[in-house]
Design a protein that fits this description.
About 60% of the residues lie in helices and about 10% in strands. The protein is mainly alpha-helical. It has two domains: about 1-90, Arc Repressor Mutant, subunit A; about 90-124. The chain has a three-stranded antiparallel β-sheet. The longest helix has about 35 residues, at about 90-124.
Length: about 120
């Protein structure tokens, strides 16, 4: 059964993920996949209220990061092939990766602030 929309907790997760610089479509897709053993892009579209191209772009990014795996489903007749998606690694490993990325970003920001201070002192 497809769940329609996100609850408050899901929306909070999407906001947190977006706070790391993650695009909204990727954050919504990842938040939805976290709750599912396996799902299709159509289920993701319906549940996240994203359009097909947005889900497709999100999946490309998640697969590029090796966070999601795709499986082809057998389909009767003609038309577009149907794919099933699921997380390729545990959720806590994804959080660890995001934590490392955020810590690196903090280090870059702090280094830039120090450079600005040094330059300001040199001009005085």
């Amino acid at each position: 059964m497809v769940e329609r929309g996100f609850n408050k907790k899901d929306e909070q997760l999407v906001e947190i993920l977006m706070g790391t610089g993650m695009p909204k479509n990727v954050a919504k897709t990842l938040a939805y996949l976290r709750k599912k053993e396996e799902t299709t892009s159509v289920d993701i579209e319906l549940s996240t209220q994203l359009r097909q191209p947005e889900v497709s772009i999100a999946m490309q990014e998640l697969r590029r990061r090796k966070w999601v795996i795709k499986r082809d489903l057998k389909k009767e007749g003609k038309g577009r092939p149907v794919h099933a998606y699921k997380l390729a690694i545990p959720w806590d490993k994804i959080i660890e990766t995001l934590e490392k990325e955020e810590r690196k970003r903090i280090e870059r920001i702090e280094a830039n602030i120090e450079l600005l201070k040094t330059q300001a002192r040199a001009e005085d």
